[in-house]
């Protein structure tokens, strides 16, 4: 028997013509797997993210609307600050001839739900037979405007097919929503204005952010707009109106628009609730809003990132899906905000930013939209006070960046307790917030990478140098002297299945890199901008630090490849027990291992959660030989569960480097299906930001072969066998290049007024301003 | 076409033999009307109340478990303290051969859900065909133990009928529950003990009450207990286990017990979480628990209150239903707690106590179980500090009892904002907390009524006199001098559709009564217990007050019957506009009027929400002639919407007094169907405590004709035409009388060792100790 959950519910090939590889379609309604589509089809504009829960409610839905940067901490030891779930404005409860419209009742004669990536619009068409046998056609659409970031627009068209329709709609604003039971809002004023606009105010309990939610409705019957009978209804944290239009004739279509807006006191242009209302009051209707929204997507997104893959339709869709979510998750409007590990698509990871931003997502922006990349790095700069506090609390110096980061001054916000330990029956302690320290070097790395790609001297002078120095100040204070060398003990590396390890290779190398870069730029500024250096010196005591950097960096222990060329992941990893991981690698469920072992036990085995040594080999690629890379791949990959969505993209890029196109492509295939694939559970708490950034990296850095090494641009494409062409844009020192790779040719169009130097397949070339270079 | 909601879903006649008129049965599953059965079938033991939400979850369910007295106030201006919704322990998510058990899916071949009042046990039997065509029988039972007040016991038996069954159960403790979006708990420790007992701790945010929730499971296959494969799972505010037993053969029955316990630091015997765990660990299995529970109901409830009605089966069921809920809603174990206006069956009225307790519910206990009545009055005594504070805040003296009352020291807890004003679009201000002041006299009245019925001198000396005096101190300070008399302006009377009225008759008469009783008992104590009077005098300055009582009481304006014998409800009522209320009286929905008028408009019309002058005529019945009563009935009843559940019972009793048996019975029929009837919406936020107390009053005080007037017991039955017999117990001055009324005879059995004096149908008689008196 084929069970519901076995059916491939998502289709990728419904788009044709202009919409070819732009549509993702859910082809059957399943009340058990709502979370998948809520997250994967979520709508967003960087200001807010809206899970695609349906207009009608189901018991297993998780409705969610998250406004970037509006963090709040609930009462209690177990809480950390998180993005609160704003009031729900998408519910529209329909009663059709006395019967509740609900897909669990009656019969679904036709159904699909489609995310149109091109227009960033969600639609749902249903032919429904009610329990009593009446038939209706319903067509729902909605979008979250990229043009007016406060606006959610919805429309539903209903056509009764069997007989005339007496319709009742109950719709409004519901502030009873929580974050898995945690209520972040004090209830505020409810109000109906002019029998038209409903308002719900709410105020976060601790961070005192004001939220103003508005919604209004418009009814159209066969092109005529009208006002139906309506009754206002206020309940706790809730304002709804019941609309009861006159009877709709059989085969006529009634259309209902619901336009909603959310404004908060975190908005840079916030004045007060009344000005927000005044702004909302001028918002036009669905179709007008949609035109502006669609134009914004065309102009700002798809023309900005014209990434094309030919040969495999799914892959073209996947890269568009990545760009779609990279756009929706990124608060490009405000440098006080960063990207959550689940974007704005769910409660997972509480909206916190991790190293995921710098190592997995930022390369997309650094390469494709440097302005946004700069803002994201400015966020880290603005977060320095919290990082300094964290360092001081741990008896270190400089800026020790939090493992998880929320609002600027929050500092460390990683929760302390996690999932159940199956052996002891107690919650597992999460050590990352205490000892996963490599993020401080990862941020420095991203700053440098941004600088090398963009040459943005203004950024460096205002923010970049200080970030490089402040992080290096941390590292010198962090190093521990051990006879003739320095080391870093008691950390968690990228492999979070190993806690309290000594000399994690990734951490030590990255710290060393960070110190060396600080020394380099100290020397440089001493020559080129002594005034700036002086200013920074007085703030960070750089003279003293410079001496310590020099002394300690050269003596920092960097684990070297052993006789088999394997770099020890940490001091003890290679001496631990090895078990056969095949059953867990094949399990459909991430974390399958922990149904049989607890973390203490896994700590004692050669089991790696995700790329650890491998990410080192990728980031600092020119410090290791191809032989070392191959040996480490062969050693570590079989011991790696890829239990983090960050893992496979890195492995794919390395496989490309190692010349194994098939392996690279097979890793990409898995990586690109983490959210977009048929696993109906893994995305419930939200899409995987880093994985989505990783998809882009595999395409551009892996198959496209784009690299920056020592400040120079390299291009060495490795097109997968199945692909016939790949096109993508990159920025280099302010110049925009459009790169087009086929089986036979590489075409590089320089659209800027400057010549660009790069190394193409090992040969240095220069692409002149406003020309196209073609290599056959 | 017959719609779902039109069907008479509840049946009352399914019980036969021993269970005749003991069962209420829901005969069809309707996902739209879950709230009705959740509340009306709710289980309770006075310590906690559990809404009867199903084991599997539905989108329109409202799960609820309320522990008496555990009030907490959330942050924000709009919040008042309320009974928090404890963690849900009743969920049991079943997957049968890979399909989720959900009645909205597949086909229901047979279904009923039954509340057995006698055993206070809820059961549900289902024959279900899954979407893929497999058939199963499921039988669920549960109860909230009257023997061990912390315990909820559940059992489910599952029999696969088509093929072998692979079962998955996901079950545990879910603390993500809120009160309509408000989260009252800080998250506490989660823990699994011995792979068996799951624990979830939680702590109220403001009142700092610790909650410990425990649950455990037991599996039996064809009488053999076994431990299935299980996996623990912790999430935020949630601890669950997935159980996966070996395959169950076709036609075999697997039984799963889930035993849960809740303990809080408000418990008098609370020590800490560990002692609570130790206590929970000793709890026996379902069947053993059930024997003790059943015995407690037989002995403590049904033998204590053997109320019998013969002639109309529904009425017998209705009075048992009343006793069932009066038991479940009343925290008889702790005099620091009172009865919520919705008992413990829902969030409605936030668990607060109103005058509903003293005027509508307390007579049942005063008459039938004086020990509990005393405890409920002790609650008011212990609440005096909050009442004194309220008086002081309003520039009055003495004890001004809060309109809504929660924990002892809370004082006034009435929310300030209510439903939407349909004209202005703003929330309506609730004035009751400010100016509905009659409750202070109502409490004094109940104290006196209790004293008269019981002769409990100990209570009077410890609490009663002080309550009478403290309330009278308030009233003398409240009276306003107006030339030659005193008056009370700017109040809300029982008719809450009239705000800011002057000289509400009920309020003035009751205040006057309160003052007169204080004078009376002052005089009495001066003679009989001067030491006590002295102690109370020094506390309440009674010498001064006594003089003021005497002066002001005699001059307090008491609205007199006009030329048509109508007592003006207040100074302006009779001059207001009269409209035809027929459409609103016939509307199925309470509050139908407010879909067309706002409260300001209703304020200007002769429209009464509920018994106002009528309740005065009932409580102080011997101050008014039958002619005045009749004239006022005829005037006010047509203007009364009975929009409060308190209204009809009072009207029925008055109709009995006025000799209109048919009208009395017709009012009773409506009153007894407020919760128990077929209206599938009106009980959603909880059953109506006062209405349920009112049902008992109609039966015993109305049809049974039991009255206490001036300290004497009167009996004057008015059996409805359809009834052939009525039996009920009452206590009088510590003696228990069992009264049995038929068409022809009245039989009174005195089971005590004291003679009892009473006036039977106008004749004074004496019933000798341990004898039965029969009047043919």
What does this protein look like?
- The structure is a homodimer of 776-residue chains.
- With 776 residues, chain A is α+β, with helices and mostly antiparallel strands.
- The first copy, chain A, has a domain at 22-302: Distorted Sandwich (Beta-galactosidase, Chain A, domain 5).
- The first copy, chain A, is built from 20 helices and 32 strands.
- Chain A is globular.
Low-confidence stretches of chain A are: 1-6
How much is the radius of gyration of chain A in Å?
Answer: 27 Å
Gross morphology of chain A: globular
Please give the most extensive interface between any two protein chains, plus how many residues each contributes.
A-B, 61 and 60 residues
What does the oligomeric state look like here? homodimer
Q: How big a fraction of the residues of chain A is strand?
A: 15-25%
According to CATH, what is the topology of one domain in chain A? Answer: Beta-galactosidase, Chain A, domain 5
For the secondary structure, the number of strands of chain A is: 32
InterPro entries (chains A, B): 6-hairpin_glycosidase_sf (IPR008928), 6hp_glycosidase-like_sf (IPR012341), Gal_mutarotase_sf_dom (IPR011013), GH65_N (IPR037018), Glyco_hydro_65_C (IPR005194), Glyco_hydro_65_M (IPR005195), Glyco_hydro_65_N (IPR005196), Malt_Pase/Glycosyl_Hdrlase (IPR017045)
Pfam family, one (chains A, B): Glyco_hydro_65C
Keywords (chains A, B): Glycosyltransferase, Transferase
Organism (chains A, B): Listeria weihenstephanensis
